[in-house]
Amino acid sequence: MAILQATARLFADRGYEQLTMEGIAHEAGVGKQTIYRWWTSKGALVADCLLEGLLLPEGIAPDDTGDIRTDLVTWLHKIFVLLESKGGPALMRSLIAAGAESDDVGGRLGDTFGTSSFLVERFDKAVAVGQLPPDAPLQQMGEALLGAVIFRTLTRAPADADVAARLVDVALGPRLADDGIRHGDLSE
Amino acid sequence: MAILQATARLFADRGYEQLTMEGIAHEAGVGKQTIYRWWTSKGALVADCLLEGLLLPEGIAPDDTGDIRTDLVTWLHKIFVLLESKGGPALMRSLIAAGAESDDVGGRLGDTFGTSSFLVERFDKAVAVGQLPPDAPLQQMGEALLGAVIFRTLTRAPADADVAARLVDVALGPRLADDGIRHGDLSE
Amino acid sequence: MAILQATARLFADRGYEQLTMEGIAHEAGVGKQTIYRWWTSKGALVADCLLEGLLLPEGIAPDDTGDIRTDLVTWLHKIFVLLESKGGPALMRSLIAAGAESDDVGGRLGDTFGTSSFLVERFDKAVAVGQLPPDAPLQQMGEALLGAVIFRTLTRAPADADVAARLVDVALGPRLADDGIRHGDLSE
Amino acid sequence: MAILQATARLFADRGYEQLTMEGIAHEAGVGKQTIYRWWTSKGALVADCLLEGLLLPEGIAPDDTGDIRTDLVTWLHKIFVLLESKGGPALMRSLIAAGAESDDVGGRLGDTFGTSSFLVERFDKAVAVGQLPPDAPLQQMGEALLGAVIFRTLTRAPADADVAARLVDVALGPRLADDGIRHGDLSE
DNA sequence: TCGTAACCGAGACGGTACGTCTCGTCTTAGG
DNA sequence: CCTAAGACGAGACGTACCGTCTCGGTTACGA
């Protein structure tokens, strides 16, 4: 639908706050009523954009190196780079604001990130090949990772280089050497 | 300042979106210009409320039992209970929205939760008494915990009972028995 | 046609301003396009209602007493009573508004009131029996009477009792006694 | 007030129907709310324009020749000429529509035309100098004249030349010669 | 008997204007 | 002199209708 594309365009340009129904209608060459006929609110509209994948860049998921830890670090790092790029924080915060203000968007965010994402596949595979124990709290590991990203976005924390590695360490548990002693460069 | 109290009252009642400068001015018995003289935006106003502790309930921090894991689970559980209570999710989401939309609020949230909180003290003490290794990524552990709470709030995930325990397991790393095998009820 | 009846019903209920094509279509159980197929505008629709006599009450014309003056006063009085009744002024003003806004309705009003009405017959008869001179400006006398009614409706003037008599005096010219002196209770 | 002037300008250009609050606001360089703060409706706005004399041309009243009949015919004729001119009928019908739809405008029309006008002065003087009997129904004579003009406007009757004379004859009563026989060119 | 065409109801569409709301600035009267 | 009160220009909100435009579904006629 042209409306969704117009919404995505304006959302990326201006953010959620500045997004207006009138602007969308005009951008899409559509009457306002046509939007209200199909969506109950700005939130629902943005949620559908999310569902259609019009808001988030694709191709974040890195290649599978066989090592879950490496892959996660690469993935997180890509996200951080994206968040440091121009417009990245604004888009992310707009999404968070939209999710906070609208049940539709919030639920959709959960669906998009929580269940159907790269993380789920990768975690499942890691369990299958024995890199993670079968009783690992996969759900919470994902929440911890994604939540940390959101938290850092909210608090405007700059994403320095090895935060990604440390976060993965937290999520997966520390690497264990044969002697059971933790290793890793965790100094900050 | 009466303005901050009025802001906090209306914020708690109506949330961030419904909060209006005119409403605050009227509630505080003050001219709008007086507000604009001291704060540049709604966000700055809310950020100052946050700083004064007018928005968040006190006394979440549980007693120190000596065991960091127990204390964290208790603390998380209290938060979850708060989030399940009437008005809890709305207030939390309003805070998130405010943080997303306003740099002031976002930064203040970071200060409030990230540096000056219960978590920092508790983590530091755990390191001191050897419950955590000295090189533990404390910062990221906190981000993971708080971020997960935010993520669950955003996605409207209901906070069932042992999510708290699992999240703490993720954050602290699993409990290790003498044999180096993880234990815990992590099935979901 | 069901459409005309629906139009008349809604016109009587709500007036010309509140009359909407969509309302008529719905009331008549008809698609909007069907109305637009047969009538070009709301005005044309109302004009046809007028032509069919669906908008105005019938039977205003009083019995013929033989005296033109008496009959006119009775007729005017009936009109005034109608105008004082519930919904009377609203209907009349709606008609005026419709006539002012739509050439169709205006022309039809002229036909209905100006040429085919009680007044024409009555005036003609009065001329025939010698109650009015043969060169009397019948057209203008009618305009004066009807126009005065419209003017009073527009200006919301209450129709007190002997306005009717005075108006008829104006239209017919004053009664003349043998001595050529005017008589009549014309004090106001 | 700039708002009233803008209203008058647009009313004269476009008529009452096409008059929009948004158009007025824009034309006056004013926010819509400012209009709504001071006037409850389009009607009230137009009524105030009327009161300020912004809608009607001035200088209709002719010189006083001493003969009421001549003056009235001249006056009526001027009105008819105005009504034949470009935009004349549209303005008049817009006024009528406005008066029909809005109590404010209707009442003001009554004030403007019915009580404070040229007619009242002229009639009073005619009574004073004996051209009209002291008990003449002046009010109704005025209503008849103005009403006839309105009626002719509504019905789109073209205002041919001697309609004015005939209307005045109706309003004043026919001229009486010494022999009590009516005279006048009343053929149509 | 069966297309096929006209006409229907329904209602989505791109628009305009509505009247309300809030923004951030500007003005004013009174303490 | 500062403040409360609130008017102001601006413009988004969600609603009501406008007049146009497809849609299927049903008669009803001509082949």
TrEMBL record, chains A, B, C, D:
GO MF annotations, alphabetized: DNA-binding transcription factor activity; transcription cis-regulatory region binding
The answer to keyword Transcription applying to this record is yes
Where does this protein bind DNA?
20-39
The membrane spanning regions, by residue number, are: none
Q: Does the keyword DNA-binding apply?
A: yes
Q: Which Pfam families match?
A: TetR_C_11, TetR_N
Which domain of life does the UniProt lineage start with? Bacteria
- Per the record, the coiled-coil ranges are none
What keyword terms does UniProt attach to this protein?
Answer: DNA-binding, Transcription, Transcription regulation
Residue ranges of every copy of the HTH tetR-type domain listed in the record: 1-57
> Gene3D superfamilies of this UniProt entry?
Homeodomain-like, Tetracycline Repressor, domain 2
Question: What name does this protein carry?
Answer: Transcriptional regulator, TetR family
